[in-house]
Amino acid sequence: MELRHLRYFAAVAECGSFRLAAERISLTQPAITRQIHDLEDTLGVRLFDRSPQGVKLTAEGALFLEEVRKVLGMLESAVRSVKLVASGLRGTLRVGVVENASWDGIVPDAFSLFQREAREVAIHVAPMNTPEQFAALVDGTLDGGFVYTWGELPRGLSVMPLALGDVVAAVPRDWDWPAGDTIAARELNGRPLVCFPRQTYPAYHDTLVAACHAAGLTLNVVQEVPTEAAILSLVSAGVGAAIVNAANLGRPPARARFLRFEDLSVGMPLAFAYVASNPNAALQRLLRVLESMPRA
Hints:
By secondary structure, this protein is an alpha/beta fold. The protein has helices spanning 3-15, 18-24, 29-43, 59-86, 106-117, 130-139, 202-214, 228-236, 281-292, and strands at 48-51, 54-57, 90-97, 120-127, 144-148, 158-165, 167-172, 182-183, 193-195, 221-224, 242-245, 256-261, 268-274. Helix content is 40%, strand content 23%.
């Protein structure tokens, strides 16, 4: 028994005629009649009662039709699912994000546009810093990641530049800093500062320290923590000030103030990183969405 036998049987049952069924599926009447005879021989039952007026299902045939419709329906569903997966409209997409980049701007906009196109793709978002995302991309546990890029990329990774941000100062509100929304970097000299350890992201750390030195600021680091969320928690607690990604402006802490620098700039190059050979069609669809978006 082959799939075609089931299709021919369903067509004859629905049309009530070998001739009409043959016309529907573009087959000659003798050919479809022979196929039904072969199916009946295989099953060992008579599926139709034949008469000059047409054909009528036997009790066995009616039961068989119910099951055949289930099988054909499952097959159509499977074909539809495979086509959706192949076009990137169904499946799973594992994406890393540097958390502060996901609160405003191109990252949430990209997720929104993508989900409008591909509602049946489940996006699994993993908050990670950039080096963690690079490692996960290389070992295949992420499909892509929104990262900040300094220095050399790991071998095998490709990146799509998205936006260029900057840094701002974060100071505790209880420091009673003078009014205004700007600050000169040297005004932080002698102040306690909270920073991230160099091993978290050496290339970014070295870039930041060099830019501070050029602006006349010597960092007086009193505590190091690995994430900007933790850094801003300590700033809010009054432990010290910090220099953080301006993306944090999208979710300002209640007990910290953000001040823009008058004389210090550290470009924050946001990009989407991925492995070009990744076969996930949903990844390719997300890349097309990102390519279509305006750049900041």
